[in-house]
Amino acid sequence: MLGKIQTNVSLKPYNTFGIECRSKYFVAIERERDVEAIFRFISREKPRHLVIGGGSNLLFKNDFFDGLTIHNRLKGIKLISENEHSVIIEAKGGEIWDDFVQFCVSRNYYGVENLSLIPGTTGAAPVQNIGAYGVELQDIFHSLTALHLETGERKIFSKEDCLFGYRDSYFKSREPDTYLIESVRFRLSKTKKLSLDYAHLKEQLPENPELQEVRALIINIRRSKLPDTEVTGNAGSFFKNPFVSREKLDELRNLYPRIPFYVQGDKLKIAAGWLIEQAGWKGKRIGDAGVHGKQALVLVNYGNSSGQDILSLASLIENSVFQKFGLRLEREVRVY
Ligand code: EPU
């Protein structure tokens, strides 16, 4: 049924939260030419539309999506160019992100290893500027090619065009669900260059570690803290780490000297997982919606939770963090 518009399709297999939601229309794109039928359909029916990759950063709040869900399955990874020091690699939007990381690490291309095992697809990665262990997608991003779903126009976006921010981009906050990200290009280093500044990374590695050892460590850390989406529904961090002013941080540090915080450029961020844990939510469960026991930033679906159950839990957490710390948590996950 590739490239064909289907009706009343369950999206449960397409979101890692494992929430049941039926989509009025659904289409999978496996070849570039599949998009033609979609432009025709969109211009005729004018449905709301939603593009999904791995479905690892979204939550359905209702059991029906009254629109068209487009599943990007475009595959392929290739070398575009190289010189003595670096390579440009292109991955199609439907490539599984971690397959792309493995491809790069196995060829000794440096830069993407700290982003190992992040769920989702390569096309979704720029949308929220994925990040982990001191590296963000924007650090290795070169450019991307996207198709405008209403006009059919194909456009190349440079790094500047993408307006990357912390878990944010042009595609998330300016023109959401307008483009299908067809392919993404990355500049990676052929000479050894590792980012090991994130707390405790260095201590857990041998002196002068190899690229493969860094990837293996990151995979271990993630497996030990984050629930496996195959076993327990979740979408990674549900909330963002909130930015705070220097005054607010000083005020909180006076009260809580061990509060974890990060300096990001000229901005300060507090670890939301710590705030949620201190507010007493770590490991808590209400029905089938819960807070992960090893990382309180992650909300989980223990089986039959609805999107509303997860959102109610999120609101309770937001209220208690605000009452205790005077900080408002912002959601990282996209809600439909
Ligand atoms: N912490 C707690 N309790 C918790 C969770 C964390 O006290 O329940 C403390 C930790 O002890 C540590 C600090 O908070 O001192 C930071 O925790 P961690 O290293 O796990 O990172 P994070 O800031 O909570 C962010 C990203 C993750 C990413 C990790 C590692 C966001 C919203 N989350 O989490 O990204 O994997 O750093 O770099 O920025 C995701 O976006 O889905 C995601 C998992």
Tell me about this structure.
The structure is a single chain. The longest helix is centred in the last third of the chain and has 19 residues, at 307-325. The model has no long low-confidence stretch (mean pLDDT 96). The strands form six sheets. This protein has a five-stranded antiparallel sheet, covered by helices on one side. The protein has helices at 34-45, 97-106, 170-174, 211-225, 246-255, 272-278, 307-325; strands at residues 6-10, 22-29, 48-52, 58-59, 64-72, 77-82, 86-92, 131-132, 135-136, 141-148, 154-158, 179-189, 233-237, 243-244, 261-264, 267-270, 285-286, 289-291, 298-301, 334-335. It is α+β, with helices and mostly antiparallel strands. The protein folds into three domains: 6-72, Uridine Diphospho-n-acetylenolpyruvylglucosamine Reductase, domain 2 (2-Layer Sandwich), CATH 3.30.43.10; 77-222, 2-Layer Sandwich (Uridine Diphospho-n-acetylenolpyruvylglucosamine Reductase, domain 3), CATH 3.30.465; 226-335, UDP-N-acetylenolpyruvoylglucosamine reductase, C-terminal domain (Uridine Diphospho-n-acetylenolpyruvylglucosamine Reductase, domain 1). The protein has seven helices and 20 strands. The chain is globular. Helices cover 23% and strands 29% of the residues. The chain binds uridine-diphosphate-2(N-acetylglucosaminyl) butyric acid. Uridine-diphosphate-2(N-acetylglucosaminyl) butyric acid binds next to strand 13 and helix 6.
The helix fraction, in percent, is 10-25%
CATH topology of the largest domain: Uridine Diphospho-n-acetylenolpyruvylglucosamine Reductase, domain 3
Helix/strand order: EEHEEEEEHEEEEHEHEEHEEHEEEHE
How many helices? The count is 7
Instruction: Report strand order across the widest sheet.
Output: 6-7-12-10-11
What is the overall shape? globular
- Which kinds of small molecule does this entry bind, naming each only once? uridine-diphosphate-2(N-acetylglucosaminyl) butyric acid
Total count of strands:
20
- Rg is 20 Å
CATH architect. name of the largest domain: 2-Layer Sandwich
| Unreliably modeled segments | none
Structural class: alpha+beta
Percent strand: 25-35%
Give a short account of the largest sheet.
5 strands, antiparallel
